Task: structure prediction
Amino acid sequence: MSDQATLLQHVNDLCDTARPAARALALLSNPERQAVLESIAVAIADNSNSILAANTLDLDAAAENNLTAAMIDRLRLDQARLDAIVADVRSVAGQDDPVGRTLEKRDISDGIALEKITVPIGVIAIIFESRPNVTIDAAVLCLRSGNACILRGGKEAVHSNRAFATAITQGLQQAGVDQHAVQLVQHQERELVPLLLKRDDAIDLVVPRGGEGLIRAVVSCSTIPVIKHDKGICSLYVHTDADIAMAIKLIINAKCQRPGVCNTIENLVIDEAIAEKLLPALEPELLGHNVEIRADKKAATILKTATATTDEDWDTEYLDLIISIKTVADINEAITFTNKHSSAHSDGIITTDQAAAELYLRAVDSSCVYHNASTRYTDGSQFGLGAEVGISTNRLHARGPMGVGELCTYKFVLRGNGQIRG
Result:
């Protein structure tokens, strides 16, 4: 355990070096920033054996600490996942430059030329839990958009995160870039986080990525603006005019394909008029995927194996093979239920009625809304962003998967030839 003075010194060291690195990054050209990411991709590939060995240490500790299967899945790396991470780094490098784009251009008073252009945010702190790939995603997205970053991962992935950080540093050095452009917090004590979150003089934005407890802790003590990657209480609504076979396919994918991630569904909302057709066909499919079914009174009378839901179920992110089923009278009740219990992450409607679909898409207030598709697509890579630093459930600055474009702000540049205001 480190004492308070040691933690404070570490925070000061991180902050004192991040700002100069950010200013240097902001001056790099697009090809230079692309070359940095390519150098990091090569370093990850070159260090794959040491990264996987470090990950094995984290997996062994996870098993000893009886972490859930979903948590271990989030933590696990293998060669295929490492190859995908390297591909994502190169995908981000190949994207259009988010910096220096002209958003608006016009002449204002006395012929002064005004231009509104995108610029890096500056220094971004990203605080996350057990997924070690976030170390790479966050670093490359920040670098591509000209930002320095300070990364604080969870103790569950400490060895994996440090191995990734070593590869990143190697890549930065080989590209001739200040290694302080990406810094990993080296102390795991929780007491360090509030010290970091008070440094609004050195850090411009905080992005917490993890469970509800982490989000609340960051928001409650940060003096720096926060963009939340909130919990994922997602749902699918099966409308009266849904295709039954399509509905079952989408529900199984959205619940079972990878239940431990934030874009899986927790609530299934069903019109009463279609419940007696859908539920008997859906139940064996859910049971075949080992899904525990919880249902309201109406659905429970149709199902054979469901347990009764509680009020808490509708607001619970299970991150497991559990689903809660709610029956509703019509689309209006479905929309009201969804807006009340959704975490504003991802929600969808299954229907052949285009008018009903458009009503739902307009009325449901989530960052991503779907018609006849699985919520599992809410992902930076799937959205063509290459990777994401998080999925924002905020309304200001960014919503949904946050790629390089969402890590830029803008400034006004004005050019004159001697004008003065009278």
Remarks:
- The radius of gyration is 24 Å.
- The longest strand covers residues 113-120.
- The CA atoms of residues 239 and 331 lie 7 Å apart.
